[in-house]
Specification:
single chain; alpha/beta; five-stranded mixed beta sheet; 9 strands; 262 residues
Length: 262
């Protein structure tokens, strides 16, 4: 028999809109739910996830604890998500291994710390970018929004012999390419940078790691403009400052999106 679906509302969930065909997305009502920030994940883990997993794995009487530093280590090194589903799985894995130790040795281990978490979960699967270099010319720290939260990234620029072109690599999409062109036009107008004669014999290469991940949006504009001014003036950029914001031809910095994550 046929089914009447006129009174049915379909509800679906997705981690990304990029894989939804445009024709289908146009017919959908999109409700965006932002992911948890790190301090929110920590609080949820301490108040709800850890007690639940201790009880489920039969170790509610364990006198030790999953310290806040160890939970932070799990978030940083073992999960990449907007929610806390995988975080609870990893906490559960730690609890099961603690239960195994109790069953085999008859006693519980001590508290799980950020240093000892590797004994329970193995080598970290993810690594956050650490800026451990000296300040350099033409290299700037930018801020990026991802589905799993905010990240920092290094924008690298270099000048090489050429014909004045702007070379962009790192899987940059159209909006970010236009933002780079705008930033370069602004930088070229600064009195302290190279003149037109220099551009006849040189070109600028911009690279944004990691090359396998597509990157788009205008918010890297101010970081790119700073990198260009640094490259063209020979001045180093501080390594402990990260920048985000759309830049205009006049050097104005506009509002950004994804501020809490960044």
């Amino acid at each position: 028999a046929d089914f009447d679906l006129s009174g049915v509302m379909f509800i679906t969930t997705a981690n990304s809109l990029h894989t939804i065909p445009p024709a289908l997305e146009d017919r959908m009502e999109i409700i965006r739910l932002p992911g948890y920030l790190e301090h929110e994940k920590l609080t949820i883990a301490q108040r709800f996830l850890v007690p639940r997993q201790l009880a489920r794995n039969g170790i509610a009487d364990w006198s030790g604890s999953l310290r806040r530093s160890s939970l932070q280590a799990i978030i940083d090194g073992y999960t990449r998500e907007a929610g806390v589903r995988n975080l609870e799985r990893e906490i559960g894995a730690v609890c099961r291994k603690i239960a195994k130790i109790k069953a085999e040795k008859g006693t519980y281990p001590g508290a799980v710390t950020s240093r000892s978490i590797g004994r329970y979960l193995g080598v970290p699967r993810y690594r956050r970018l650490q800026v451990d270099r000296d300040p350099e010319v033409g290299v700037v720290i930018g801020l990026a929004w991802t589905m799993a939260g905010g990240e920092i990234l290094e924008l690298e620029t270099a000048s090489v012999p050429g014909t004045g072109k702007l070379v962009l690599t790192g899987n940059l999409q159209d909006v970010m390419k236009e933002s780079a062109e705008t930033a370069l036009s602004y930088a070229r107008g600064r009195p302290s940078t190279k003149d037109g004669e220099w551009f006849k014999n040189n070109q600028i290469h911009v690279h944004v790691p990691e090359g396998a991940i597509p990157k788009d949006g205008p918010s890297a504009g101010i970081a790119l403009a700073t990198a260009f001014v640094s490259l063209l003036s020979g001045r180093k950029v501080r390594k402990d400052v990260a920048m985000t914001g759309e830049v205009t031809l006049r050097g104005k910095v506009l509002a950004i999106g994804g501020l809490p994550e960044k």
